[in-house]
Amino acid sequence: MRYAYAITAALLLGGTTLALTSHSTSVIAQTAQNEGTAAAAPQGAPASLADMVEKLQPAVVNISTRQRVQVQNPFAGTPFGGLFGFGEGGPQTRQAQSLGSGFIISADGYVVTNNHVVAPGARGATVDEITVTLPDRTEYKAKLVGTDPRSDLAVLKINADKPLPFVKFGDSSRARVGDWVVAIGNPFGIGSTVTAGIISALHRNTGGAERFIQTDASINQGNSGGPMFDMHGNVIGINSQILSPTGGNVGIGFAIPAEQAVPVIETLRKGQNVQRGYLGIQISQLSDDMAESLGLPKNRGEFVQAVESGKAAEKAGIRAGDVITKINGRTVTPDETLSYIVSSLPVGTTVPIELVRGGKTVTVRATIGERPPEEELANFSQQNPDDFSDQDEQSTRQASQQLLGLAVQPLTPNIARQLGIATETRGVVISAVDPSTDAGSKGLRRGDVVMMANGQPVTTEAELGKAAQAAKDSGRNAVLLQILRRGSPPIFLAVRLRSQ
């Protein structure tokens, strides 16, 4: 802005100088720059969105909840227990509210929103009342028909004495990056608000099994659950998330595509629970280091870290260390993730799964199971391990001389007991890690157990060194290690060789 002002000032001074030195007495007609000017709309886009918005806005609603929250008394048992509005010694029930957006999808009053808009906002909270407010400020008490936390969708029902305005879904599979979109919602509770932008990306994965439409149309807190429209006025997405370091809009918003949302919404409208496919494996992305250690191409396939006992993957013969590259004919990529593909498969169907094991392609067949509740899945996740004792200087020097930056020794039953792992475990235990190597940067430490290297069991320092040297001789810069740490299941980790 400083530079803009400086240029303007220079132009004004130049104009003054010309006026002082000119001897002409003729009158020059003055015309404003913006007089008679109208911007041309891009080809295929309307000159204004007003007519379309005027028809759509009545079907977009505000959603609010009234909740009760149990607040613990931090002064319980002290002389201050009855102060600050708390009951003597016990927890206090407080009122809370949440605000969001939604839209009506049928004349008889079915409403779609995000699950997090109508879900309890804190542990132990209960939702007493849900209110849907139309743009004309008419309020209705809503019934919660169904929710699906994994897709972050919810369906409500309101009863009116007349048909309600509603909108219909479009085909999000035909959306393209660069298409114009319009978002309508109620950000910050200030009232119905319209923003416009373009589709910035498709199939955006934010860490789960779902994929999103990314847009630069302004989405802020309170827009959640509101519709994203295409230029034909059809709902192609449901605004759900924003990416922001400040909590406000920075031009990166995410909407649930209609093609994913509609089947879930129809299931919830029928009062049914949403079923998703499940294999029973713990997976990780095939990182560059891991792909190099296995001699596989990047961005194709996902790595099996662990297999859950008794589930579909184990029954099909899938093992920890496999790389799944294709399932039911669909290639696994960063856009088509394994979780996304599996969750969309019907429970009970048997599908072929192509995987890489020991450098060879293997095909197995698995019968898709049903995804368990999220609480049960939490038991199959890795735990936060405890730290181990510090390593000595001599061991550190020894580690710095190894290709992997690791000093190791055979794992004996006595050491296994000290580490708190099964005495029958086979491998080598890390006695020191060179912190300047990739092993150090990836968190390996004294007390970790190396069970395998590039698919082969290792029980001595020589076997681990041989695996590292073999990788180097074959032109690979990383070795895939299977690591066991106390309190956690074994995981596979690709470790780069020390720079020469």
Automatic annotation (TrEMBL):
GO annotation (BP), single: proteolysis
Boundaries of every PDZ domain copy: 264-341, 393-486
GO molecular function: peptidase activity
PROSITE patterns, per database record: PDZ
Top-rank EC class of the record's enzyme: hydrolase
Stored Gene3D superfamilies: 2.30.42.10, 2.30.42.60, 2.40.10.120
Pfam families in the record: PDZ_2, Trypsin_2
Alphabetical keyword list: Hydrolase, Protease, Repeat, Serine protease, Signal
InterPro entries documented for this protein: PDZ, PDZ_sf, Pept_S1C_Do, Peptidase_S1_PA, Peptidase_S1C
Signal peptide segment: 1-19
EC number of the protein: 3.4.21.107
Region (Disordered): 369-399
Family listed: Belongs to the peptidase S1C family.
The name this protein goes by in its record: Serine protease Do
Origin species: Sphingobium lignivorans
